[in-house]
Amino acid sequence: MKKLVIMRIYNNNVIQAKDENDIDKILIGKGLGFNKKIGEIIDEETATQIFIEKESNDLMNLINNISPDIFELSSEIIEYAQSLLKTKFHNNIYLTLTDHLNFAIERQKDGIKFKNMMLWDLKRFYPEEYAVALASLNMVELKTGIHFPEDEAGYIVFHFVNAMYGDDTHLSQQITKLIQEIVQIIRIHLAIILDEGTMNYSRLITHLKYFAYRILRGERLEEDDDLLRNIKINYVEAYNCSIKIKQFIEKKYNVDIQDNELLYLTIHIQRILRDEKKDRIVTEKA
C-alpha cells in the first residue's frame, strides 16, 4: 500500500496529500477526511478516486474557488449515480459536474433560468440516467434549500452520459441526435406509434445507444452471414426499415454500416413490430 501524508482536508470526502516523491494528489472517498488531521499518514488505496499532476492542479483550483460543501455534494451525487447506474465515470466528472453545480446554484439564486431544448429526448433515451438526475436535484435541494426545474436534470444527464463516453461532450450529443433520427425513421417508415412504455422499446433504445457509439467511433462487430440471410427472409419489413436507416446514416455521417449491424438492428425493430401487431389485434377484437 502506498503511504501518503495528509497536507489539507477540504471536507469529509476530499483531502490533499503528498506521496514519497513529493507529488500532490487529491484523494476522494466517502468519509476519507473524517476525524483526520494534517500530517497523518493515509493509505492511497482507501480513496475511490485519485487525481494527480495536471488533474490535481485543476481540481485544487476549482476547490479553492468554490464552497467545500458544493464539492462534497457533487462527490456524493457522483458516487450515488455510479452505484445506481452500475458504471464507472471518467474522472473528469468531478471537475465538470462540480463546476456546473456551482454555476447552476449561483444563477438560480439570481433568478436566471435556462431552457433545456433537449430535455424531452434525454428523458426518452436516457430514462435511468434521468431518474438519477432528478434524485440528484432532490439531494441539492436538501443540502442548499434551492429548488431546480426539471430542465436542470437534463443538464446533469449530459454530465453522466459524457462521463460514460470518456468525457467527450461532442460524441454524447451526436449519439443522442443519431438515436433521435433513427427512432424517427422507424416511426415514419413503419407508420406506427411507438409505445415507449414497453420492454422492447427500452431494449431498442439501449441497443441504439451502443449502435450509435460504435458507428460514430468506427468500431465493428464480428460478421454472421448465415444468421443475416435468415433474418432477411423472415423479417422482411423490419429488414427494409434497417436498410433505410443504413442509407440515411451512410449519406449523412459518411460512415459504412456493416451487415452485422443490420442484423441486430433488424431483430430489435422486429420486436417493436411484433408489439404493434399484438396491440392492433387486441384493439380490433375490442
Structure description:
The protein is of the alpha+beta class. It has three domains: 3-51, Roll (Transcription Regulation, Sacy, Chain A), CATH 2.30.24; 68-164, PTS-regulatory domain, PRD (Orthogonal Bundle), CATH 1.10.1790; 170-285, PTS-regulatory domain, PRD, CATH 1.10.1790.10. It is built from eleven helices and five strands, in the order E-E-E-E-E-H-H-H-H-H-H-H-H-H-H-H. The protein has helices spanning 53-64, 68-85, 93-109, 119-125, 127-144, 151-164, 169-190, 199-217, 225-234, 236-253, 259-285; strands at 3-11, 14-18, 24-28, 41-43, 49-52. A five-stranded antiparallel beta sheet has the order 4-1-2-3-5. Strand 1 and strand 2 (14-18) form a beta hairpin. Helix 6 crosses helix 7, helix 7 (169-190) packs across helix 8 and helix 10 (236-253) packs across helix 11 (259-285). The longest helix has 27 residues, at 259-285. The protein is elongated. The chain starts with a strand and ends with a helix. Mean pLDDT is 85; it is low at 282-286.
Structural class: alpha+beta
Overall residue-averaged pLDDT value: 85
As a percent range, the share of helical residues equals: 55-70%
Find the CATH superfamily of the largest domain: PRD domain
As residue ranges, the low-confidence spans are 282-286
Order of helices and strands: EEEEEHHHHHHHHHHH
Shape: elongated
State the end-to-end CA separation: 69 Å
- Summed up, the domain count is 3
* Strand order in the largest sheet: 4-1-2-3-5
Q: Just name the CATH architecture of the largest domain.
A: Orthogonal Bundle
Radius of gyration: 23 Å
Main beta sheet = 5 strands, antiparallel
Pfam families: CAT_RBD (PF03123), PRD (PF00874)
Organism: Breznakia pachnodae
Protein name: Beta-glucoside operon transcriptional antiterminator
Domain PRD: 65-169, 170-279
